[in-house]
Every structure is written in C-alpha cells, then in structure tokens.
Amino acid sequence: MSETLVHVASGKVRELFTIDDDRLLLVASDRISTFDVVLPTAIPDKGRVLTGLSAFWFARTQRARANHLVGLRPDGRSMECRRLEMLPLECVVRGYLAGSGWKDYLREGAVCGYSLPDGLRESDQLPEPIFTPATKAHVGHDENIDAERAAALVGVERYREVERASLDLYRFASEHAAERGILIADTKFEFGLDAAGQLVLGDEAFTPDSSRFWPADEYEPGRPQPSFDKQYVRDYCESLGWDKSPPGPDLPGDVVEGTRARYVEAFERLTGTSFEDYLANPEVVLR
Ligand code: Q0Z
What is the reported pTM? Predict the structure, then answer.
C-alpha cells in the first residue's frame, strides 16, 4: 500500500520523484523565481495553482495530443506522470514579440531563422504564431536554434511533428485564454516518446511558469508588458535596487498576498472553476 518515492531531479521550483518503472511524481512547490533567482519567500498555493492549470490543459487537449498525465494526488500539487523518453528540445511557440524573441529580432530582424516584417514593436502580436525551438541548457539560458539545427537533434520527421503539435496546442490555448482576458504571449513545451514511440506532451502545459501571461486589458505594444502573476514581485524587487544576484530579497506580506491572488485569479479565469473547489477535489479540473 505505502509507496517509496525516490527523488530523481530538482528544478528551480519543482521536484521529480520515481514512483515505479513506468511512473514519475512531479511536485510543484510554492517557490517563486524572478530575474532567474529563486526567492526565500514562498507564495502559498502557487504549486497547487500550477499543477491544477497543467492538469486542466492536459485534460482539454488530450484528444488532439496524448500527454503524460496519469492522475492528480489529493494534495493538489502532485501529478502522477507516465515516464517518457524526453526529446532534447525546448519547444517554444511565440504569438507576440517578447523576451529573447524581441532581443533576436532587434539584432537580426529574425527569430530562429524566421524573417519578420520590419517595424515591429516590443510586445507586438506576430503575423502568425511561430515555432522557435531552443536547446536545453544545463546551466544558464536555453539557446534559440533554427529549424535545421533542431531537426538535427530529433530527426526531420519528428521535428515536423513537434512543430505541428506545438502550434496546434498554442492556437487552442491562446484562443481560450484571450476569451478570458489573458494573453499567452509565448509558451514552452517538452515532449517525449512513450514505449511505443508515440509523441507525448510531457512536463507542464500553459502555466505562468512555462508561459508569459499578460493581462489583456493592459496590453499596449511598444513597451514590455506587465506579468499577470509576477508583476508585484518584480515591482517590489525593482523598488529595492537589488542587483538581481542571489540571494534574492524576502517578500513582504502584501506582496505575497497580492501575488497569491493573481495566481488564483489566473486559475479561476482559465479553468472556470473556483480554486476552493479545486482544493476540495483536484479532479474537478479533469472533467
Ligand atoms: C521532466 C523536470 C525536475 C520537474 C525529466 N514524463 C516524464 N518522463 C521522463 N522524464 C520527465 C518527465 Cl516529465 C522529466 N524533467 C524536467 C525536472 C522537476 C521537471 F526536477 N526531467
């Protein structure tokens, strides 16, 4: 009956355990990172919000693309997953010009080999969403690569399949989110292969940690956009004049409470479910 979990990996804000030969347990903590630094102060329930959101999207996209979700644990922050052979590629889709996409565009007028029209502003919506793969960096930042280099990593056929799957998933979720007042500027997926060699969506899906969520009612291209979830944290950190090297600052109670409220708001808008109902029974997001 009782199970022995073996810890296999730590991400910045998540932990991965082995359940058995076929299954992993992905646990989302309440840790938060900003400017690439994990802060000493947790945001209560952040891990539950992110796990619930991932599970919601996995449930809603499963007919279009198989995913690794096996089940949610009653704690609401832990997801049982099928063990996959992960592909060595970060699968990024961009619908808007932000982050490294904006930087690459300013330098070369292109992102991952896609020439873009002249005159785009920071945060502009792209003429259509683009697939901009990156390598998985073990230290530092992922490196954007062009289609040829990405295809060399996974094979050209598999490359075309992850590109199609990523664009389809992004179109579905970004339309759903925009109708609920949240712009998904970009998002990152990780795919793997199951025992039969089928392409399966893994990791997390359309969480504010794997995506840029912007409040639609404040959208104004030509400047960086406020983050739906982390803006209070960023503003507080900027107000301190912190140099953004570790350790990060402790967060005051009002910043913690305001940030928690934004995570819960994103959850409730996107899932249409009250967070209280999720806590009582996480499986509500799977229906
Ligand atoms: C994901 C990661 C971490 C969270 C391995 N279904 C899967 N099968 C095989 N491997 C993975 C998955 Cl999700 C897998 N990661 C990234 C590391 C916490 C996610 F420590 N690594």
Answer: 0.98
